[in-house]
């Protein structure tokens, strides 16, 4: 409530010193009217060294929380310094509010400043311990997923087939527009830069080799995986996190249904199946993007570009891309589901879970890409 | 263990991260009774229920169902035992991607060999029992909080459990819906003879449904007493129990 226009401002005057003083409160005590701060009034009281304090509120107009909060501080000061209070002059209702505010003693939690400071070495140690625990949780989860896959292979895993097909649609068909756009643009950028560099050597046509090999072997799968990490992995984490918060996962457990089988397996299988298909599509879009750049900037005939691409890209390159995509799909699904299952039970925790799922997925995709590149080289693919 | 006792807690301590919220719990729950776990907010009522429903391993002690220790058996045996229980959660905890019908049908599809038609008939019957006949095609987001709790009861009863657990059944409900849910719990007890374990601090519910209750104290971190709550309200030796059951009026 704002102070009324033209009303006298809030004032607190200490009248008299020595044995007895009177705190004269006058004017309109409203939060919007910038009333005197409690610490200023208390400091004045401390300087006056009174032993008894009374109140005069004859000039007091309206008041809101600003008045009881000042009086609470004054009362605490008086109690701490053995100053006798005569509350008779206070307006009706203020006394009851003060009693209510003091009904429950202050909690004993230390203020933030008083909490012990953690030394950098101890902080580092804690982070290492936390990281090792997080790794342990990741391996335990992967272990549970592998066991569930084993049960699936033996025909003993239980999940709803209808839900599996719904997830397939969500992660596959519904991701096509964003995968198309991103992979086409990445191909276009590669084509443009490649053309600029190769033109110096009079080897413009080899932009088709550059774009084709890069997209098919790695970039198509990577782009698809990163799009899926942001789109699908985050969605998985948010879905499972919300289910955790609503006790839906507890409800599964208390019915004896394994949440990993019921919730994680369909998501994992859907992503392992759909990511290679999306990556294949991303390859095509990337090559088209490169061809577009080569045609517009380098003036290369699209047919010539296509023939050059077919000559440069072999089946082994496609195999590399497809295997990579399958692995990345599994990484995205496991990251999203792991973080979702680890989620806390409030809205903030679900938000943090979603962020964490995307970060975890992208980090592990990059690690997997590095490992797979070395592996493919080792087996001669 | 007495002849009628179905559930027994022996020296049970429950808590998180090695810190006990409640310790030294010793009590018996008789078959066919409505047993209420009561106490102030944060005293560990729901934590105890999580231990009894298989969601949280106890720190010490034992939980026995029909004389068989719940936590000292292999996970597969515990999973079999769990299927003989039903749990209704505070917010219903219905699976949000499924209709009410699918929620109730899932346990039947998972653990019985019934055909789709029989499952459908059973689901209709369970939903009708809780007053939700004809609502099977609705999703949890499309119904009220009271209806969600009722649907949660229908799902918990899907496999005709021997023990039904209720976590704060009346929380968040208006007085009329809370009373209707209390009446449903009592009716189910009389008609099915199911043992009910109810976690609540709602006094009206406690007096309306409980055959027996245990009071968990937040300060001492253990149980203070067990008995009929109406008797405890007037005669409990501990003043805190009397004060709790009289809303603080001594």
UniProtKB/TrEMBL annotation, chain A:
Gene3D superfamilies: STAS domain (3.30.750.24). Residues 23-101 form the MlaB-like STAS domain. It comes from the Bacteria. GO terms for molecular function: phospholipid transporter activity. InterPro entries: MlaB-like_STAS, Permease_MalE, STAS_dom_sf. Keywords: Membrane, Transmembrane, Transmembrane helix. The chain crosses the membrane at residues 134-152, 164-193, 205-229, 277-298, 318-338, 350-376. GO terms for cellular component: ATP-binding cassette (ABC) transporter complex. The keyword DNA-binding does not apply. This is Phospholipid/cholesterol/gamma-HCH transport system permease protein.
TrEMBL record, chain B:
It comes from the Bacteria. It holds the Pfam family ABC_tran. InterPro entries: AAA+_ATPase, ABC_transporter-like_ATP-bd, ABC_transporter-like_CS, P-loop_NTPase. Keywords: ATP-binding, Nucleotide-binding, Transport. GO terms for molecular function: ATP binding; ATP hydrolysis activity. Residues 7-245 form the ABC transporter domain. The keyword Lyase does not apply. The keyword Transport applies. This is Phospholipid/cholesterol/gamma-HCH transport system ATP-binding protein. The lineage of its organism: Bacteria, Pseudomonadati, Pseudomonadota, Gammaproteobacteria, Chromatiales.
